[in-house]
Amino acid sequence: MKFTLARILVVDDDEVMRTFVVNSLRRLGIQAIETAVDGASALRAMISFKPDLVLTDIHMQPMNGIEFVQQLRKHANPLVKNMKVIFMSADASTDTLEQALPLGTFGYIVKPPRPETLRVKLEQALK
């Protein structure tokens, strides 16, 4: 799939970061973008928006990004269960990486994401 045609769900509790990521995606030519403020609202958006890929923060309340992806991986719907996910976080600690990477994701972007990093990660995930 050409990444500019992808439907992207951006999950982040920080409004400034959410807006920054959405604007970065738009500059890359992606138009189909929805947002969510935490894992719980992202789960609801998964059903209505049907994204091709999710970009999610890790540290959010009440449901963080790791819990959100764990819920995805347990979902009965195979499209939700196998959703392509890229984590975004300012936290690049070994502890966080050890929790995040085994969840079958397509990478980890340190925030704030650079547009070229976003492009490369999206292209890799959407092949």
TrEMBL record:
SUPFAM superfamilies: CheY-like. It holds the Pfam family Response_reg. Keywords: Phosphoprotein. InterPro entries: Bact_response_regulator, CheY-like_superfamily, Sig_transdc_resp-reg_receiver. One of its GO terms (biological process) is phosphorelay signal transduction system. The keyword Phosphoprotein applies. PROSITE patterns: RESPONSE_REGULATORY. The modification 4-aspartylphosphate is found at D57. The keyword Cell membrane does not apply. Residues 7-126 form the Response regulatory domain. It comes from the Bacteria. This is Response regulatory domain-containing protein. It comes from Rhodoferax ferrireducens.
